[in-house]
Amino acid sequence: MGAVLQSTGYAAGISAQQAKKWADELARTTLYEDDAVLAAENLLLTFTNISKETFPEATRTVLDMATALGTDTRGAAISLGKAMQDPIRGAVALRRVGVNFNAQMQEQIKTLVEHGDLLSAQKIVLKELATEFGG
Hints:
The protein has 8 helices and no strands. It is mainly alpha-helical. The chain is globular.
């Protein structure tokens, strides 16, 4: 994890210790061991547009997606990471796994990104994923 954080210039604004703490917490409340959570976190951290504000929720969302879709955390982390990196294209790509962003949500995401508010666009993506896969 240290190598990933260093190679991305600590873009997420978190430390390896914080990521480990979140992994331990998620391992206690999900079906996944801390090693699996850490592996998912490592993948998410390679996407430099994921910030400290969204990283914990994104990690939980990866686990929820993998469980609901019957896939591995790696695939879910890559799908979500791409959506967080580029929410406009990501919303379209997530349709392939059954996520349905209505026209209003898609337009809202596009407008937010165009106005430089990536964080708000990411929150819309995460909220919809929580609605479909959360818990």
